[in-house]
Amino acid sequence: MKKHPRLLSLFLFLGLFIFVIVPFIPLILSSLSFGWRWPDVFPQAWSLRAWEYVVNDGRTWQAVGISLWIALVVTSVNILLAVPAANALVRYRVRGRWLFEAIIFAPIIIPPFISVMGIHLSFLRFGLTETVLGVVLAHIAPTLPYLFRAVMISYQTLSVDWEDQARMLGAGAVPRFFHVVLPHLLPGILAGASLSVLISLSQYLITFIIGAGQVVTLPILLFPFISGGDPSVASAYSLLYAAIAIAALAGMDAALKRYYQTNRASQQEKGENA
Amino acid sequence: MSDLRIIDIEKRYRTAEPKGGASSFMLRPVRLTIREGEFFSLLGPSGCGKTTLLKMVAGLLEADGGEVWVGDENLTDVPPESRKFAMVFQQSLLFPHKTIEDNVAFGLKMQKVGKKQRLKAAADMLEHVGLSGFGSRYPDELSGGQQQRVALARALVANPRVLLMDEPFSALDPGLREEMRELLSRIQKEFRVTVLFVTHDRDEAFALSDRIAVMGEGQLRQVGTARQLYERPETTAVAAFLGLKNILSGTVNNGRFTSSDKTLETAVNGELADGDYFLVIRPESIRAAEGDRPGQVSIKGTVQEMTYGRGMYSLKVKAGSQLLECAFTTFQAEKTAVGEPIELLVDMKEAWFVKE
Amino acid sequence: MWQKTKPYLLLLPAAATIILLFFGGIFDGLLKSFGYFPAIGETGFSVAAYDRLLSSSSFWESMALTLRVAALSSLLSAIIGAFIAVALFFLNDSIERTSPKPWHRLFQLPLTIPHLVAGYIMVLLFMQSGFLSRLLAAMGWIDEITDFPVLVNDPFGWGIIFAYAWKEAPFVTLMLYPVLSRIHGSWREVSRVFGAGHWQFIREIVVPVMMPAWAIATFIVFVFTFSAFEVPYLLGVTYPSVLPVYSYQLYTSGTLSDRPEALAVNVILAAITILLGLVAYYFSKRWNVLKGWG
Prior knowledge:
A: mainly alpha; 12 helices
């Protein structure tokens, strides 16, 4: 009885591994190759040439910086927009709530490039094309719904009693928000922010239309290489791009964990002292 | 004197009909004065409006009319955070991301008391509730009873003018509940704090309160000490809620009361106008007959049920159409058994007539 | 008064931002698709762009390709995603959940990879001189590059389908796994008592429990792949192209006067996605699958 599931587990695990990990192998090999001719499974010569090119090119780090900066600004704006809106929809009786929900969730369903193509000329008129500000504005619609949803779920799990309790202890609106509401929302905000950052990082088309090639984020920099450029450099750029996306997510995740762990740690420390 | 005065506070349902029928009130106007340092309970079944009243006194719920005063200060339009009240809820509602001492010190922090001073006050208060040494822990490491003690300490630390409590012990185990009652009683006397306490538990209200307001169906029914309420209920509704089940309907005619099923007929002490009455007989004022005694009335019936509890037997005796509940000593109860006929004596000095 | 208007004031910034930046753009596009285009001196309304579009064969070919690619991608994602979910379920079940976290991180990896990178991964894997072709050659199954079928930048759209299957299957898994984990070990024991084997257990309990979430997840993948741009732009051919790419080609290649047609494609795309979205929303509410999705 025991042997059979173990063998099955091995096969299942192997299957998962092949599906998830193996596709990365040619990408890694290609980035390290120096001329990789068919039908060789492994390159004959290894080289760090592509990586040197990527790392030493000033545009790379500029693109990384701009991508992260845009993602950060977009996400911060989203937090400022989403928290009050989620508060209103969860805590108050709002007439036409379905309409508000439909409006805010619409960009999940309707692809944002449709709106961006429509608004392109207006952006041009206001001088927003080719600017980081324009790209930030274009990134808000596709990312806001995810953050809004995460904050809304957090709000739903926070009973009004907590705020009432804080009021009865003399806390006005501002201390109430910072001492009671925000600590409760923080995990939800961080989870939503990760999604917002990830989605902002992966926008190609709308960045291209609004940025018009002047706002060079990672996908904009990457595209010419992967659509027929030097495969080694394209692979190195792809890996870097993926790594930045994963690192951004992992960073958020670590921040979340640390938030919980500092609670634990400081408490244990104090416990030992006492 | 800073008594808490509740003057005609009322609450209507949102969907009140324009004519405003009897059912449009969530809470009919309430007028109460709670003396400084008094332990006052609002007692009633769930949905009777007691929590609504409490939240309006707290300011968490907006009243549709009426005023709340403490001393000569009108608090009606003062927001809850500025009333200098404190409240303990059914759940302890300790802030999970703050330590116990930070939780207790929270009210003082809101009053901008310095850190050293407020932590000192918190430690003192934790000692009062028997939790000294727990200050640096987090709420989720404490048991339910301990959490509720912390909630009590947190409410008291800032010297509130009034302490509001909304069924604070109802989520606890029965044994723990009694322990918490004693603690609360002791602390309330020690700090001489005015307490407005909401509960549906009669024993809890009786054990703790100086005075009790019995509420039902969105209005105050009767206010008094536990003994006044129990021995002199003004209505059958109050009597029934306090657990008095022997309520006999009947009429008084020429100074004599006759129950409607004719099982009981007796002279009435004092002067009662002729008319329909209810006779309330407490189980403790019924005994088994051992020869006639003056001033007592006998009822014949059959024992239907006997249950033993806390040194006493509780008997249910069928007499006419009425099922009478009697509290017998073990000695008396051993002389009878289920199914046997029995003659009961009612001490009419202990019996009580109500009109409705 | 303040209490009455307060929630609306709190909602205003978010709603106004979306209305202005998102619906404003859609409305702008809608006007221009009807020929209202003040920038080039057109202020009349006409359905000329739609006329031209609906009578052009390239639009209908594009539509057919888009439907085919979206249908096959979502179907493949659904099958692979369900397989991963069931596999994880059994793995966690037999490994006594010592540390289930790393598994979950691992299978979510493709979700975090940007679409363009996922596309390029498929290029390196499936192109005629790609990794798979090399492996087959090494095993002696093929002799020439041309023996390997054209799977990338092919008119059928295989490359696009593979890329989506790889990236969206973990999404299907993510939607299914919580549903599956509701099937406690005890259920399994109960079914054992009644003599159900592995496959019977899957057929009688696992599949029925998964079905609603599975259908919704597949549908969401369909709606997404129907309207996504990056992957087909990289892995498709110039003609025929999927609708989003077709719209982009019209938008950028021609003159300003070609734009109404591009925007008409967008309006049609938006209409279809809204319709599909409403269908998905309706069924998810009815089956109670997407708690909290609004």
